[in-house]
Amino acid sequence: MSKALRYALHLILWLSILWLYLGKRQTHLEQPDVKGDATGYVTMAYNFVHSDVLSKACDRFYEPCELDPLPPTHYREPGYPLLLSLGIMLDPEVRAMSRAEFWPEPGRLNPQAFEALRRVNAAQIFLIAIMVFGITAVVSGSIWWAYVPAALVITSETLWHYSQFFLSEITGMLFLSSAMLCFTAAIASARIRYFVLGAMAYGALVLTKAIYYYLVIVPVVVFILALLRNRQQRKQLAKGAVVAGVIYAAIVSAWMYRNYTHFGKFEIADRGPTALATRMEFNKMTERELRASFLLWAPDRTLRKRLRTEYTKKDTTRFNRSNQDGFYRSGRRRADEVLRELGDIEGARVLKQQAIETLKSDPIKHLLVSASFFWRGMFVEDDRVLGPLKIPAYEHTLILMGGLISLFIVATLTLQPSLLLVSGLPLASIVLHSLVSNSRHRYNFPTVPMLYVCTALVIFLVISFVGRVARRSVANES
User: Which is more confidently placed, 110 or 299?
Assistant: First the structure.
């Protein structure tokens, strides 16, 4: 194939992806209410634009705000609100809106303001498609096969559905895929600039989804493996890894120091102890509740029918988030009481200690409950379908998780650093969420593009293996 023809085909394929992107962009124009976690993110973005402070104060925009200056917050990570603020900055009319104009009534943003913010989410989807294209091309060595996960990202109903909600998962997805692209390129080429960009992307990921702070051990192990396996470029890889570590530490510690100076706590976000206390409350499940949870959290209708026929309402009532005596509300209430009585710093220490005691008292029970939460969390696309293929969520999840786990097994057996990175980090994220959180679907949402990549890579490896076997057979016969 001539170079000109290759360029022409690439241009056609990227124009097709752009056409799909613009088409999906026009089919998701609803304006749902802004509530829950989204309220905090939008408030922080608006306050940052107008006060240069990341604050979640005065979140009732339709009421007068008498605080001046606004108090800073560290309840949530700063990454997504900062990115969301770009939507306000880039639209002069939205930037000029007063608080009452921006958010005139409970749950309903000004339509122009809503669209300005939604453009930020929509733009990230296209960037994510570019990132997964790059990851697949670098790891597989096939630029043509890289179009498969890119097309899956662009046509994902889940991504477009969540682009209408102002939650941090899409930005976490962007920074995770960006870090993966830079780190896989760094492993392949040993160039310092990829280590620098990867460290910046991973630092931004941690400041968007704090749980990845505890998963930094995965890229560290991968870099050590790369050093051991690549003797020719060992010096350059070691230099790049050190530079990456310094840059990452500088980015994350700067935000943690900011929180220390304001709140006396050297941490990324303030929700950890409360989330952990809530998760430990679920360890009080009875054996019957534990069995019922697998059916309750399954997206498959057949399994949900079994829930109604085999279990009573009593077996599932404590899973209801609105139930004041349920697991979620009880855990939050207990955490709030401890923090109120002992203060933030001592209360956080006590909650962590209580969680450790709960874990020590019955580690087997914790693992069994974590298995239930892993089951819940792996249905990252909920009841959506896989792009234009219309594969239901249950079968869809089995395909994606099968691809992720299969690639991780291959990476572990072959000790291929890049394969271990792209499969190990998303798998570790899902596992850690099941261990320390209530693992709602969207918590693992940042891993979706990597699930597409892993599944595409497994298929590519199978096709390549079959091709090699076939060619060897033909060569032997001739």
Answer: 110
- Asked whether 227 and 441 are in contact (CB, 8 A), the reply is no
Given a contact cutoff of 8 angstroms between Cβ atoms, the answer to whether 348 and 271 are in contact is: no
- Report the share of the chain in percent with pLDDT over 70: 95
Least confident of 109-118, 300-309, 419-428, 455-464: 300-309
User: Can you name the residues that pair with 108 across neighbouring β-strands?
Assistant: 105
* Cα separations in angstroms, 449 against 7, 27, 187, 222, 398: 26, 21, 20, 20, 15
The one-letter amino acid code at 289 reads E
pTM: 0.91
Q: What is the pLDDT of residue 394?
A: 66
Contact 136, 408 (CB under 8 A): no
Q: Which three-class secondary structure string do you get for 389-401?
A: HCCCHHHHHHHHH
- Annotated domain spans of the chain: 110-265, 272-377
Extract the tokens encoding 262.
């304001």
CB 372 within 8 A of CB 294: yes
Of 157, 221, 191, 209, residue with least CA distance to 24: 157
- Per-residue pLDDT of 297-343, as tens digits, reads 887 776 777 888 888 888 888 988 888 888 888 888 888 888 888 88
**Shortest CA distance to 227 belongs to which of 213, 244, 207, 241?**
241
* Residue bearing tokens 């209580």: 354
C-alpha angle with apex 431: 427 to 433, nearest 5 degrees? 115
How far apart (Å, rounded) are the C-alpha atoms in residues 114 and 186? 38
> Which pLDDT score, from 0 to 100, does residue 429 have?
94
Best CA proximity match to 62, nearest among 26, 91, 34, 32 = 34
Q: Which of 115-119, 136-140, 210-214, 395-399 shows the lowest per-residue confidence on average (mean pLDDT)?
A: 395-399
**Cα distance from N-terminal residue to C-terminal residue, the chain:** 27
Give Dmax over CA atoms of the chain in angstroms: 86
Secondary structure of residue 409 in the 3-state scheme: helix
Integer CA distances (angstroms), 241 to 131, 179, 193, 198, 225, in order? 21, 14, 11, 10, 12
CA–CA distance, 399 with 405 (Å, rounded to integer): 10
Q: Locate tokens 């992720």: which residue?
A: 404
CB 135, CB 453: distance < 8 Å: yes
Nearest-angstrom CA–CA distance, 87 and 338: 38
Q: Which residue has the tokens 């809530």?
A: 278
Rounded Cα distance between 470 and 72, Å, is 64
